[in-house]
Each structure stands twice: as structure tokens, then as C-alpha cells.
Amino acid sequence: ASIIRDYLPSEYNYDVDSSVGRSVKQADYDDIDVIPVSDPNATTLAQRVTQYQAVLQLAAQSPQIYDMPELHKRMLGVLGIKDVDKLIPVTKQMEPRDPVSENMDLLVMKPVKAFIYQDHEAHIAVHMAAINDPILRQQMQQNPMAGQMMAASQAHINEHIAFLYRRKIEEQLGAPLPAPNTVLPEDFEVQISRLMAQAAQQLLAQNSQQAQMQQNMQAQQDPVVQMQQAELQLKAQREQREAAKDSAELQLKQQAQTQKVMLEQQRIASMERINNQNNQVKMIDKAAEIQRGQ
Description:
Layout: H1 2-7, H2 40-61, H3 68-78, H4 84-87, H5 99-107, H6 120-132, H7 134-140, H8 146-173, H9 186-221, H10 223-293
Helix pairs in contact: 2-3, 5-6, 6-8, 8-9
């Protein structure tokens, strides 16, 4: 409307009929206002908000693969919110905190960050103690944001676990690794990857052995497992006794069978001797009878 008014002539360029007007001049804009019936940016803004809402829904399903602070910053920017950096602090500018302070920040949904030089085992122990605390857990169940707090806590613990794993690999290598996200030369990256593979296998074997030892110790201390082991021992003893009994019975049966066979053989031999003796007596009697007849 402003452009049209500025470039219109000051007078009509033809004779004007009072009943019909076919053109306008600059002075006509002094009596009227041109008001748009719609904002051409409204549709674009609605589309952007819809798109970012869809992205936020996808990010809620797999938050580990998204940069959630950056995603929320862009959403606030689309909505026209100013001073976004004050609402969402930049993670890279955050200062290290002790584990208790980190737990306090997690409870009020403030961002936290792990740093490479921290005692990660101590941080993990403090965070896990807070998560497993029955009083805190009972109070958290009444909080509608409990799920998001738990997800943020677990994500932060995973940061410490990642740094701890890196430190374990360095201990296996006996040398520090390059700083995270450092762009390495190709040949150096290949060599260090091979060394990392060896260190990872050694760490896996060490952790597996340690986990097995802990599992055995826990099993020995578990009363249910102890009762099961006692039952297994009693069962094994019963099976041994039954096996010994069966073996003894089988041996007695074999001995009895052997004796029976021997007695039968002796009986047969005795019968044969008697038959032989009878035959001899008959032969002698017959010879004597023949002799008498002669």
C-alpha cells in the first residue's frame, strides 16, 4: 500500500465521472486504510512449529541421538522468544560441579555435564546412591516430571561411564589417548585403532573375570543359593548311596548266579561220575556172568 501510494500520480489521468471511478491517486489514500485480511507469515510460522513439534516427538523416543538443547533453542527461536541462551545455558560453557551439586541440579531439571578429569567412579557412586534412595524415590513418584528427571540422571551417569571406560582403555594402553573429537591423521588413526582394539579385548577379559568373581561371592553369601547348594549336595549323596546299593545288589546277584552255575556244574559232574561207576559195575557184572557161563 505504501509503495502504490508513493508512485501514484497526484491527479487522475482521465476525466472522472462522479458516479464511476476507475482509478486512484495519492490523495485517495488519505481517506482510507488498506488492512490485510491475513498475515502471509502466519502459515509459515505454523508450519515451522508443526515441524519442530514432530521433531521433538521423535527426539523423545530416542533422546540419545539428538542434541536436545540445540533442538529446544531452535524451537524457541521459531516462536520468537528472545534471550534463548539465558533460558538454555550453553553446555560447553558449564563449569564442573561436585556430584551432590549435580544431583541437586538434576532434581530441579538443570543441565549438568561430566568432565574428563573428574573421579567418575565417585560421581557414579553418588548418583546411583541418590537414584536408589528409597526416601527420594518415594518423593519422586509424586512428581509429574519424575520420568524426565530419571532420564536426565541416567544420561549424565552414562557420560561418566563413557569417560571411565576411556580411562580404563588408557590404563591398558599405558599412554593417554588424544583429546575427544580430535581430528587425527589417517595413518595415525589406523594405528591407534588397532592398539585400542587390543586394549579393549584385554579390558573385556579383565572385567569379565572380575564380574564372575563378584557373582561367585554374591552367590556364596546368598542364603537361597546356599540352601540350593546344600540340597544339591544331599541329592548327590543320596545318588551316591543309591548307586553303591545298586552296585552291591548287582554284585550279590552275580555271586549268587556264579554259585548256582558252579553247583549245577558240580551236580552234572557228580551225575556223570555216578553214571560212569554204574556202567563199570554193569560191565564187571556182565563179564563175571559170561565167565560163569563159560
